[in-house]
Amino acid sequence: MRPFLIYLLLLSLATLLAATVTSLPRPPLTEPGLPDLAATLPHVGQVPQRPRVLGYERTEFGPGWAATEGCTVREAMLLSAGATLHDCRVTAGIARDPFTGEELDLREGVEIDHLMPLSAAWDLGAHRWSAAQRQAFANDPLNLVVTSRAANQRKSDLLPAAWQPADRRARCWYARRLAVVAATYGLPLPAADVASMTRTCRMDVVTRHWLGWSVDL
């Protein structure tokens, strides 16, 4: 083979290798202590599909963010994400958006997402709770995530069969955390969403094994 052709072959192989490496997903989002999906799902009931229960209003879950430590739950979540606060206002802070994997400036353009949407919780059983129970649920950090306004709006009130984090590394984490929320509050999940969550985490295990990641999720 001529030297020039060998050079072209090596260049093509190098380009292909570089493209493969850059396209590989980064290690998955982790949360110490979060149980495996298989350990949580037996404690979560299932329904054939999400019912639609009339009467949902955001105010059914309280007038807004509850007060805590001199500010509100919203500021407490931003503080836990790495924000610097002054008089309950964020003055600095950078975090990673768990839904997109992108850098998040905590001073602007951020929202606190309810992992289990309040309207979904209402449909799946929260309409039978007391007002105090609903307010506690709406302010529980277990069900709260700091994310961008754009990501939160895309998620809206959807569940896993209709929405998944844009960052594929976060999808199994999202499924596992959602399952914990559902189990903790005795809320069932629609069968299609459970199936989607199960597939996501099964694929996550395969990906980690293939890439040789030894990540404790």
UniProtKB/TrEMBL annotation:
Pfam families: GmrSD_C. Residues 97-165 form the GmrSD restriction endonucleases C-terminal domain. InterPro entries: GmrSD_C (IPR011089). This is GmrSD restriction endonucleases C-terminal domain-containing protein.
